Amino acid sequence: MNTEAKEPMKVQWLGNVVEIGAGRPVVVQSMTNTDTADVERSVAQVLELVRAGSELVRLTVNTPAAAKAIPEIRRRLDAAGCFVPLVGDFHYNGHKLLSEYPECAQALSKYRINPGNVGKGEKHAENFETMIRLALKYDKPIRIGVNWGSLDQDLLARMMSENQKLENPLSAKAVLREALVQSAVQSADAAVALGMKPSQIAISAKVSGVTDLIAVYRELKKRCGYILHLGLTEAGMGLKGTVSSTSALSVLLLEGIGDTIRVSLTPEPDQPRSAEVELACEILQALGMRSFTPQVVSCPGCGRTSSCLFQELAKQTQTYIKSRLPQWRKSYPGVENMTVAVMGCVVNGPGESRHANIGISLPGAGESPVSPVYMDGKKWGSLKGPTLSSDFHALLEDYVKRTYGKE
């Protein structure tokens, strides 16, 4: 079967069209963790995720109350001027909820289907077909989302049994990887056979191990031309989740594998959900694939940087940029490509500052207490004294206006 998506998937709501695949920039996705039936909290979190840079937002649709809430969530987002496409996450009862709540089916822009839990035996094919027919009826793209924590057990049992009969059987992990690939590709092929275009289908096969994810997606890339959604599931919390997600996604993205990504971080207690979006954006920006926000380049410090002034200025500058970015994006297109350097001594400070759009080199131990500033590779002048931070930010603001202002 020819599964190549020769045109991008279009996930849209009103005038906002997000294109995925076929050479388009990698799209950032996220997912809420609120009770979807709680409309107020769900709307607030969607807005938070969108402000952080999420271009699609997925919500759990697991109960009649959640299905009923989706149209109201959509209405409130529209009223707030937020037209981000919403993706419905369905498990076990998606065929019923989409059938019984047509307003929900229409308000969503995309459906996520897990073939591992749409039903057992004969019900598996029947329920899966129901969801595909409804996607066709409402002209909605889908994601076939396979997960090794909820894999089709009939398929896995059959493959394990067949493997045991081989003269040189594969390891259990190798069979599990193969089952993930087969489940994803076969389910997508079945959707095409029911009438969906390859460009209306994305597939994912998520695992929690870095090397496992890389192996599975390399195999998917060999076997099909469907749009690929990348994500290390259950990545973990804090540094562990950050390193694991970055390692896995970066390897695949640099190999040209992946059209859209989601980072599945466990949120720190009392911390915003948007951290997963910020990390996804940082990964793409670090790889040179997308630009979301101006980058602050700063040194780690050494024995020469006896003062913590450069650390404080680097943090203050990042905070300042983050606070100004929403307005800058509206008024100064292209500002997200800007690089700002905040350096701590004369060794690399002037050089890094010259490489940046605008940079400042603070004095290290034993250096003259002045901080040269560079703009577009040339020395502008110097700053010093207790107002250094506010003075530098004023220069930064002026630079943005002059460089990225609309003519």
UniProtKB/TrEMBL annotation:
<dbReference type="InterPro" id="IPR058578">
    <property type="entry name" value="IspG_TIM"/>
</dbReference>
<dbReference type="InterPro" id="IPR045854">
    <property type="entry name" value="NO2/SO3_Rdtase_4Fe4S_sf"/>
</dbReference>
<keyword id="KW-0414">Isoprene biosynthesis</keyword>
<dbReference type="InterPro" id="IPR004588">
    <property type="entry name" value="IspG_bac-typ"/>
</dbReference>
<dbReference type="InterPro" id="IPR011005">
    <property type="entry name" value="Dihydropteroate_synth-like_sf"/>
</dbReference>
<dbReference type="GO" id="GO:0051539">
    <property type="term" value="F:4 iron, 4 sulfur cluster binding"/>
</dbReference>
<dbReference type="InterPro" id="IPR058579">
    <property type="entry name" value="IspG_C"/>
</dbReference>
<dbReference type="GO" id="GO:0141197">
    <property type="term" value="F:4-hydroxy-3-methylbut-2-enyl-diphosphate synthase activity (flavodoxin)"/>
</dbReference>
<protein>
    <recommendedName>
        <fullName>4-hydroxy-3-methylbut-2-en-1-yl diphosphate synthase (flavodoxin)</fullName>
        <ecNumber>1.17.7.3</ecNumber>
    </recommendedName>
</protein>
<keyword id="KW-0411">Iron-sulfur</keyword>
<keyword id="KW-0560">Oxidoreductase</keyword>
<dbReference type="GO" id="GO:0005506">
    <property type="term" value="F:iron ion binding"/>
</dbReference>
<keyword id="KW-0004">4Fe-4S</keyword>
<feature type="binding site">
    <location>
        <position position="302"/>
    </location>
    <ligand>
        <name>[4Fe-4S] cluster</name>
    </ligand>
</feature>
<keyword id="KW-0408">Iron</keyword>
<feature type="domain" description="IspG C-terminal">
    <location>
        <begin position="295"/>
        <end position="395"/>
    </location>
</feature>
<feature type="binding site">
    <location>
        <position position="352"/>
    </location>
    <ligand>
        <name>[4Fe-4S] cluster</name>
    </ligand>
</feature>
<comment type="function">
    <text>Converts 2C-methyl-D-erythritol 2,4-cyclodiphosphate (ME-2,4cPP) into 1-hydroxy-2-methyl-2-(E)-butenyl 4-diphosphate.</text>
</comment>
<feature type="binding site">
    <location>
        <position position="299"/>
    </location>
    <ligand>
        <name>[4Fe-4S] cluster</name>
    </ligand>
</feature>
<dbReference type="Pfam" id="PF26540">
    <property type="entry name" value="GcpE_C"/>
</dbReference>
<dbReference type="GO" id="GO:0019288">
    <property type="term" value="P:isopentenyl diphosphate biosynthetic process, methylerythritol 4-phosphate pathway"/>
</dbReference>
<dbReference type="Pfam" id="PF04551">
    <property type="entry name" value="GcpE"/>
</dbReference>
<comment type="similarity">
    <text>Belongs to the IspG family.</text>
</comment>
<dbReference type="GO" id="GO:0016114">
    <property type="term" value="P:terpenoid biosynthetic process"/>
</dbReference>
<dbReference type="InterPro" id="IPR016425">
    <property type="entry name" value="IspG_bac"/>
</dbReference>
<feature type="domain" description="IspG TIM-barrel">
    <location>
        <begin position="18"/>
        <end position="278"/>
    </location>
</feature>
<keyword id="KW-0479">Metal-binding</keyword>
<feature type="binding site">
    <location>
        <position position="345"/>
    </location>
    <ligand>
        <name>[4Fe-4S] cluster</name>
    </ligand>
</feature>
<dbReference type="GO" id="GO:0046429">
    <property type="term" value="F:4-hydroxy-3-methylbut-2-en-1-yl diphosphate synthase activity (ferredoxin)"/>
</dbReference>
<comment type="pathway">
    <text>Isoprenoid biosynthesis; isopentenyl diphosphate biosynthesis via DXP pathway; isopentenyl diphosphate from 1-deoxy-D-xylulose 5-phosphate: step 5/6.</text>
</comment>
